[in-house]
Amino acid sequence: MRTKPERAHPVLERVAVVANDRVTEGVGLLRLRAPRIAATVHSGQFIHLRIAVGADFILRRPFAVHRRDGDVIEVLYRVAGRGTHDLETKRTGQEMDAIGPLGRGWEPGEVSSALLVAGGIGAAPLGMLAEDLAARGVAVSVALGAPSGERLVARGLFERVARRVGVVTEDGSEGETGLVTLLTARWLEQETFDVICACGPEGMARAVAEQARFARVPCLVSLERLMACGVGVCLSCVVSTTHGLKKACKHGPVFDAEEVVWDASESPQRA
Amino acid sequence: MPPSPRSVPEGMRPSTGAASVDMTVQLAGLTLRSPVMTASGTFASGHEYAEFVELERLGAIVTKGVSLEPWPGNDSPRIAETPSGMLNSIGLQNQGVEKFCEKQLARLGGVDVPVIVNVSGHSIAEYAAVVERLEQEPGVAGYEVNISCPNVDEGGMAFGVGCTPAAAVTRAVRDVTSRPLIVKLSPNVTDIAEIARAVEAEGADAVSLINTLLGMAIDPETRRPRLARVVGGLSGPAIRPVALRMVWQVAQAVALPVVGMGGIMTGEDAVEFMLAGAAAVAVGTANFVDPTSTRRVTDGLREYCVRHGVPRVRDLTGAMDQ
Ligand SMILES: Cc1cc2nc3c(=O)[nH]c(=O)nc-3n(C[C@H](O)[C@H](O)[C@H](O)COP(=O)(O)OP(=O)(O)OC[C@H]3O[C@@H](n4cnc5c(N)ncnc54)[C@H](O)[C@@H]3O)c2cc1C
Ligand SMILES: Cc1cc2nc3c(=O)[nH]c(=O)nc-3n(C[C@H](O)[C@H](O)[C@H](O)COP(=O)(O)O)c2cc1C
Ligand code: FES
Predict the structure, then answer these.
(1) pTM, entire model
(2) What pLDDT, on a 0 to 100 scale, did the predictor assign at position B160?
């Protein structure tokens, strides 16, 4: 089902901060000048960013490319710990190095309609996909979920390019009250889609995958794993699949939901 | 002292004096074009990093551990970041020696660099069987026998923590190969020099050290261990002083050449290991941090030699002043 576009080799690039702005509580949007990565990145691929040099945390941090804008790539990040806390303090002109583009992104193939499902910061890898699909004339529907209205991200982007955007929050502070699967269940009953692309907490991705299977719609999910190397060397990022263990950094982060053997203990996300 | 080369941006250092320093070293019967090798499990079989460094400039590529049958490895999470390092409990996930020969080794065929295969086993017989299979492959320059992995229940480290089993594995492998044989030692022992002497007596051509130090981490929020297997191996700069001490002790205890590793990030770090007695060094976790690390370490080592008027890098081995 998935077509395999030629993936460019990843490069190690000095990237410069063009802007770094807070978009909502605990979430920032980083714009990085990264001409070489921007030149070849596909939606759903990620970069492995070295946030600090000389700090006592040494590993890189993986982030999806949220959007591409000429020479600039955007990263939408949630402050989650030491690395992302440091990231928040980066100012225009500061440089870091990034490896990218990495992994296999969204490869929905030839479709005329798509349902994108985002939970919280899971909207990050869906931004560029929504733009690309819309530019190809695909009818894009986006279901956005978050614990509360302040945790909704990228709504503006989706509203610009999608045919329809639905919002669900757990506390009801915006949109409908409940989980995003409430909305996707209803949409899937009402109409059919050629593909579903989901990213968010692993429990959400799994629930969407089950709905997709029931509705017989192909479903792609982007998964997170702890990553050391990011390039397929260290085997820290494995995902259990029907074809055995696969590396999230190389064969993923986007997987065909049908091949994922869901195992919550593999996910790095804290509830 | 001249300014530190650290001020020059990574990957952009000039190769000053490239011609003036002899970078070759001898190791277990092999002539390496540089003392800088890769540490097993941190470079796969090289191809992923070929995008970032010239494999031909490495002293040797040491592969990920290979066993007789495929091993699935441990449950996730398999890594945890810790101060200046990381814990891993990958558990020697590999596809088994047959697939290894078919895929990885075949792909390295065209690359002009010695390939040292890191060998693991659950039993003494398995170590020997893996090596016997690899003997049929002309592309193998030598073996690094891993008797020190802290991440598998049977085998692995169990062989490396006592003189008798360490000697027995070495003997069993020595009996089936005349190729260079490096035995990789565990730091999780009371007296590493004693183990080094035991493997020397059984015919090892070199020893490499250190493998990872056993450690653990707990997430206070969830009260759960950060690794599924609870304990794992610590690597990276955090272990460098311990590794250096052990290299120094072993170099004094045996006549064999020593491959030193543990937290090497820069050329200066490599110099430390050589001064302590290492004939060659390996770069591990640093590859994850900076995929050009092997090149940086090599260039840094060469620049050090230029700066200090050292004509041959091998002159550094054991040259600590006391
Ligand atoms: C392919 C991929 C794409 C991602 N894209 C985005 C994105 O676009 N926006 C965003 O906000 N986050 C994204 N994440 C999650 C992001 O990488 C983590 O939130 C980040 O690494 C946390 O680092 P920290 O130092 O702030 O947290 P700490 O908890 O201090 O990090 C400690 C260690 O755990 C790792 N870690 C912690 N949480 C995660 C996690 N959820 N996933 C993977 N590793 C984790 C860190 O990388 C680090 O090695 C992505 C993860 C992956 C695997
Ligand atoms: C992710 C990972 C995987 C490893 N796999 C192996 C292995 O398969 N065989 C082995 O002998 N050592 C293995 N090691 C140990 C390294 O080769 C090295 O001895 C150790 O990490 C110390 O060096 P460093 O601090 O430079 O990483 C592994 C280390 C890491 C971090
Ligand atoms: S992060 Fe190293 S193999 Fe995926």
Answers:
(1) 0.94
(2) 79
Would residue B149 show up in a list of annotated catalytic residues for this protein? yes
Contact A218, A196 (CB under 8 A): yes
Amino acid at A68: R
| Chain A residues with beta carbon closer than 8 angstroms to that of B90 | 234-236
A229 touching B (Cβ < 8 Å): yes
How many domains does one find in chain A?
A: 1
Q: What is the CATH number of the domain that holds A59?
A: 2.40.30.10
A226, A228, A232 member nearest B48 (Cβ):
A232
Would A233 be classed as within a structural domain?
no
Full DSSP string of B3-28: PPGGGSPTT----TTTTTSB--EEET
Residue B7 CB neighbour total at 10 angstroms: 6
- Comparing A3-12, B111-120, B125-134, B177-186, the range with the smallest average pLDDT is A3-12
Domain covering B18-316 in this structure, CATH number:
3.20.20.70
Interchain CB distance below 8 Å, A236 and B11: no
- End-to-end Cα separation, chain A, in angstroms: 32
What's the ipTM? Answer: 0.94
Q: What is the pLDDT of residues B123-144, one digit of tens each?
A: 899 999 999 999 999 999 999 9
**DSSP one-letter string for B160-203:** TSSHHHHHHHHHHHHTT--S-EEEEPPSSSS-HHHHHHHHHHTT
Q: Which two tokens stand for residue B281?
A: 């060094």
Averaged pLDDT score across all residues of chain A: 94
Q: Is residue A92 part of a domain?
A: yes
Show me where the domains of chain B are located. 18-316
Give B121's DSSP letter.
-
Nearest CA to B256 out of B189, B209, B295 is that of B209
| Helix A180-190 and helix A202-215, axial crossing angle in degrees, nearest 10 | 10
The one-character DSSP state at A265 is G
Cβ atoms of residues B304 and B268 within 8 Å: yes
Q: Three-state SS across B206-255?
A: EEEECCCEEEECEECCCCEECCCCCEEEEECHHHHHHHHHHHHHHHHHCC
The dihedrals phi and psi of A33, each to the nearest 5 degrees, come to -80, 115
| Phi, then psi, of A131 in degrees rounded to 5 | -65, -45
C-alpha of residue B39 to centroid of ligand 2, in Å = 6
H/E stretch holding B280 reads strand B280-283
Domain of A98, in residue numbers: 11-102
Side-chain half-sphere exposure of A127, counting CA atoms within 13 A: 25
